[in-house]
Structure prediction request, 340 residues.
Amino acid sequence: MSRAESVPETGRTGEGADVATDTAAGAPATPGTGGPDTTPPRPAASAARSPRSGRKPSRKPNPLWTLGLFRSELVTTFRRWRTIALLGVLAAVPILIGVAIRIETSDGSSAGGGGGEGPAFIAQITNNGLFLVFTALAATLPFFLPMAVGVVAGDAIAGEANAGTLRYLLVAPAGRTRLLLTKYATTMTFCLVATLVVAVSALTVGVLLFPLGELTTISGTRISFTEGLGRALLIALAVAASLIGVAALGLFVSTLTNSGIAAMATTVGLLITVQILDQIPQLHALQPYFFSHYWLSFADLMRDPVYWDDLTRNLGLQALYAAVFGSAAWARFTAKDITA
Prediction:
């Protein structure tokens, strides 16, 4: 029997013969040998033609989806009763200050103890209600504003872990880095909103209880009421920027624990500790590096001309704290084992 007649007969004997027949019949001949080409195919070409070449590459998160996540975080944060209560307390501080000064000066005496010994801003409130904005910001910045920011920042990650919703947030295609940045952006938005709540409340009370007009700066020069409003806005922005370091510190603490209450208490405790240390004379060499040291430098915006040195030091120090604790929060959060 010839080789040509044996091939079909062999093809009916089993699977192994089928494979051999297909190889002999379908494989191209190797040049110069006359036999089948046994050279393996190139992986790239094979993968490109194979319908089962593996999973499709993962798609990058849509920027619109990231904005949606940020909007969702804002809505969630500002709808919490705790956040509403914090903003209510901040709005009440200027009201209490304005009413107290109005009652104290109702008999014609000056604010600050009747002899003019009070701070310059307080002494000027009875002459111009716009100074109540500066006084209220100076009164809330050392404690009330950073405490509110510490509560929101401390609850950012730890609160989600405690509620069991953190791992569900990570299921979405945002990733840990995007989620952390969204949390920090939400906290920074709260810093700005909280500062504006104090400023708007103080301006409203100042307009209702005290006269308005030209302002006398700390340097003794006079500026128009419109320019004074512009400086009040700059002061509010400077105060909000002073809270950048606190927000980063609170976010870092929030990545260390799964208890929102523990993170909030730790952040507020660190705030109080740092401000106590900033008042100890023996630590004067370290005090310029405390994030709260230049907080009240916003008063230099009421000088004519404006004194920028301490303002720039404050902004640079806050940026440094944000970079250090933001990086620490990222390193901790990206390596953290999420179980809740």
